[in-house]
Amino acid sequence: MLASQPEPAMGIFTGLIIEVGRVRQIRRRADGAFIHFEAKKVLEGTRIGDSISINGVDLTVIEMSDDSFSADVSLETLHRSTLGELRSGSRVNLERALAVGERLGGHMVQGHVDGTGELMSVTPEGNAYRMRFRFASELGRYIAMKGSIAVDGISLTVAGLGDDWFEVAIIPHTWRETTLGSLKAGDRVNLEVDVLAKYVERLMQHESLPPEGKLTMEYLVERGY
C-alpha cells in the first residue's frame, strides 16, 4: 500500500459511472473519517492525488493498490452527503475525473453535493423504471423539466417535476450497472444540480431584470448567457 499527503484535487466528472465499488473499511475520527474502498476499473490510470467521485462526492485518492484506494472525508462532507451513512460492505458508484480530450457523455458534474434527496417510489415502465425523489425546497429553483441532475453521481435527465419531487427514467443498463437498482423507498441519495443553473442565477442577480413576461431566450442571448 502506498501512502502520501497530496494536495486536495478538484475534478470534473460526466456522471457516467465506471464501476460499482464496495467499502472495505471505515475509520471514524473526531475530524472526519478515513474510508478504504474496493475497486478495479476506476483505478486504471489513476494516481495518488487524483480525484474520484464516490456516490457523487469528489474525494482525493491518498492511498491505493491494484484493487483498492483510500480517501479522507471531512466532517462537513459527512454531514452534507450520504457518505456518513456508509458501512463496511456498502456499494458505491465510482467515476474518475474527466481527462482532457475525453468525451463528455453525460453532463458537467463537479462532485460538490448540493443536498440530499429521498427515494419516494419506483415504478416499472416497459423495460425501464421511473424513480421519484423528494428534494429540499431550496433546490427546486435549479431543477427543470428535461434538465440534468446528478443522483449519487449518476447523470440523469428530469422526466417529471413537482413542487418537492422530480422523476427520472432509468434504462436497464443504468439500473444494472449502478446502485440505483438496490435503492428502496426512504433511502437517501446525494443530489447535485446543474452548475449552469447556478451560474445563470448568479449572473441574473447583477442584471436589471426585464419586465414581467419578457424573460425570453433572445433577452438571455443578448446578454451573453
What labels describe this entry?
single chain; 225 residues; 12% helix; eight-stranded antiparallel beta sheet; six-stranded antiparallel β-barrel; 2 domains; Elongation Factor Tu (Ef-tu), domain 3; mainly beta; 38% strand; disordered N terminus; globular
Q: How would you summarize what this structure contains?
A:
The chain has 225 residues and is mainly beta.
User: What is the radius of gyration computed over CA atoms, rounded to a whole number of angstroms?
Assistant: 19 Å
Whole-number total of structural domains: 2
Give the strand order, joined by hyphens, for the main sheet.
1-6-7-3-2-8-4-5
- Provide mean pLDDT, rounded: 89
Residue runs with pLDDT of under 50 for 5 or more positions = 1-7
Order of helices and strands: EEEEEEEHEEEEEEHEHH
Distance between the ends:
48 Å
The fraction of residues assigned to DSSP E strands is 35-45%
Q: Give the helix/strand class.
A: mainly beta
How many beta strands in the DSSP annotation? Answer: 14
Instruction: Classify the fold: give the CATH topology of the largest domain.
Output: Elongation Factor Tu (Ef-tu), domain 3
Global geometry: globular
Which architecture of the largest domain would the CATH scheme give at its second level?
A: Beta Barrel
> How many H/I helical runs?
4
